[in-house]
Amino acid sequence: MILLYIVAEIGILTLDARDLIYVSGLVGAADLVLFNLSRRTFSRDQIFTQWK
Fold this sequence. Notes:
Elements: H1 2-10, H2 17-41, H3 44-50
């Protein structure tokens, strides 16, 4: 995200509303994937029984 901002500020790439919608869609999809991955790998019972 920071790289995209820097490239747009330098003027190499222009960002219009369509491009921002694409970027937000990609970020949203990545967020959903990471959320599902963390939900599947998180084990509350294992943390309670093995934490010392």
